[in-house]
Amino acid sequence: MPELPEVEVVRAGLAPAISGATISGVNVLDERALTRHAGSGSDFERAITQRRVSAAVRRGKFLWFPLETVPHMPEEAIIGHLGMSGQILLRASGSSRERHERVRLDLEHPEHGELAMIFCDQRTFGSLAVDALVPTPDSAAGGYGWSAASIPRQVLHIARDPLDPAFSELHFRDSLSRKRSAIKRVLLDQSVVSGIGNIYADESLWAAAIHPEQPAATLSERAVSMLLVEVRAVLEKALAEGGTSFDAQYVNVNGQAGYFAHSLNVYGRTGEPCGRCSTPIVRVSFTNRSSHYCPKCQQDPSSRRPHTQSP
Question: Of 51, 61, 91, 179, which is the active-site residue?
Answer without folding.
Answer: 61
